[in-house]
Specification:
With 285 residues, the protein is of the alpha/beta class. It has three domains: 80 residues, Orthogonal Bundle (Arc Repressor Mutant, subunit A), CATH 1.10.10; 97 residues, D-Maltodextrin-Binding Protein, domain 2; 93 residues, Periplasmic binding protein-like II (D-Maltodextrin-Binding Protein, domain 2). It is built from nine helices and twelve strands. The protein is elongated, with a radius of gyration of 28 Å.
């Protein structure tokens, strides 16, 4: 079978849409002979007849109707691909796993919109280690764990306190803050893909048992039920207030570094502007 090309598919769809070879040629801006050659080469490549030609009309065969439907999908996908590639300078997708930038999230959106209206900012939540970067879901990603993948580069844009999430009726909820030692005999709920809390925060001889959760909503639900506790970055408390859950600072835990990550070989044109704005928000907020 010969390779297909988009011109052949466009010829087929144009003939069906316009009804005649002459009108298809006008719609495509080519000669009628070019349209005829395009269809003939497509039929040879597929080894099937696609159109019935009479003196009055051109109609698809049964196979032709199926091929036309598929050709429309292929051409639409190609159009989407071109539009996606061309939008790189007019759209900026920032991925995050749990909590974006916490209390700075709204300020980022509003200040960006006011200063960079030519580039639309979209926040995209993807609960993966790269917050959607590896999956192609975003152009930049806010992450709170170092990325081991050498395809990515990252810069620290700010620091956040670590907080403990507790059921509202937990005895520790009455305190203004807690220590790691206060939590050592509890069940620690963690998200191993994206979470910042691990047993290594505690001394080797005083580490809590852990259970895994898959999502921030699952995490909050089990904590509200009093089944255990969570330790998280301060942004989670800003982004996810939840009835039945209180957050208390863990005063002897190291802060969480907030990083902005990007593809090393394909940084977004707006990267430097985003870096500067987020860094300023953390520095002044």
């Amino acid at each position: 079978m010969h390779d297909l090309d988009l011109r052949q598919l466009r010829c087929l769809v144009a003939i069906v849409d316009e009804g005649t070879f002459t009108d298809a040629a006008i719609a495509l801006g080519v000669s009628q002979a070019a349209v005829s050659r395009g269809l003939a080469s497509l039929e040879r490549a597929l080894g099937v007849r696609l159109l019935r030609r009479t003196s009055r009309a051109v109609t698809p065969t049964a196979t032709g109707a199926r091929v036309v439907a598929q050709a429309r999908r292929v051409l639409a996908d190609v159009s989407d691909l071109v539009r996606e590639a061309a939008s790189g300078h007019t759209r900026l997708r920032v991925g995050y796993a749990w909590s974006a930038l916490g209390r700075h999230t709204v300020a980022l959106q509003r200040r960006w919109s006011a200063a960079r209206h030519e580039t639309e900012l979209h926040l995209v939540r993807v609960n993966s280690p790269s917050a959607g970067l590896a999956e192609g879901a975003c152009d930049l990603a806010v992450v709170r764990r170092p990325l081991a993948d050498r395809r990515f580069e990252a810069a620290i844009v700010g620091l956040e306190r670590r907080l403990c999430a507790l059921a509202a009726d937990d005895p520790l909820a009455a305190r203004r803050s807690v220590r790691l030692a206060d939590l050592a005999d509890r069940i620690l709920f963690v998200d191993r893909r994206t979470g910042t809390a691990t047993p290594e925060l505690w001394p080797p001889d005083a580490r809590p048992d852990t259970e895994e959760t898959n999502d921030v909503d699952d995490w909050l639900t089990v904590i509200a039920a009093g089944r255990g506790i969570g330790v998280t970055a301060e942004s989670t408390a800003n982004q996810y207030p939840r009835p039945g859950v209180v957050y208390r600072p863990v005063r002897d835990a190291e802060p969480v570094a907030v990083r902005l990550a990007w593809w090393r070989d394909d940084p977004h044109p707006a990267l430097q502007a985003v870096l500067e704005l987020i860094t300023e928000l953390y520095r002044t907020g």
